[in-house]
Amino acid sequence: MSESSTRSATAVAGEPAGPPPMVRVENLRRSYGTGDAAVHALRGVSFDIARGELVALKGRSGSGKTTLLNLVGGLDTADGGRVLIDGTDLAGLGEDALLELRRDRIGFVFQSFGLLPILSAAENVGVPLRLRRAAPGERDERVALLLALVGLADHADQRPGELSGGQQQRVAIARALANRPALLIADEPTGQLDAETGLAVMELFRAVVRSEGCTALVATHDTQLLGLADRVLELSDGEITEH
């Protein structure tokens, strides 16, 4: 077991009473395939993320970062171990409860942006609020606030094809924040951006964590971006080490 895993296990056994960490991962294991061909993506991964923390996850391509993010976000099921979000064990939730958790408590940002091309920036940001059936006035107010937060108040009516890559990623971040998630998960959010734009997006994550009061787990391989995180976790050979 890695040093960080040992610290986490010790904390679980003897920590004082109080609010749980926003994310707790305990002895998480995930493999693909069987027998000699099996790929062991995660080998007993354990760590905590405190509330309000921006944690960067680094590791070479194919190291299992996306697998780990999918498990933390309730998009995949582990072979062993468990994930707790704000004290809730994901393994104990049915499909409907998981869907509700992802909709209301977790925001996702992906490398490919994932915006709907026929909708304007404002309409894309408003999609999660429509799914929650928020009142039109509440929806419009939240969308306007978020577009201002990411610096796109003047681009509300533009469609994704009319925006730069950095602007599209800012729209995606705003959309992820629409339902005021407690946890923001981002998988290589700067992977399609140039260095300068990528740095600006990572700085935006830093600002968002502070202004929205959420927690963020961001996978990135960019060394420059790692310096903006409160803490860096490295995934190597299916295990986590902390920097």
UniProtKB/TrEMBL annotation:
It holds the Pfam family ABC_tran. One of its GO terms (molecular function) is ATP binding. Residues 23-243 form the ABC transporter domain. Residues 1-22 are annotated as: Disordered. InterPro entries: AAA+_ATPase, ABC_transporter-like_ATP-bd, ABC_transporter-like_CS, ABC_transpr_LolD-like, MacB-like_ATP-bd, P-loop_NTPase. The keyword Signal does not apply. This is ABC transporter ATP-binding protein. PROSITE patterns: ABC_TRANSPORTER_1, ABC_TRANSPORTER_2. Keywords: ATP-binding, Nucleotide-binding, Transport. The keyword Nucleotide-binding applies. PANTHER family: ABC TRANSPORTER RELATED, IMPORT ATP-BINDING PROTEIN.
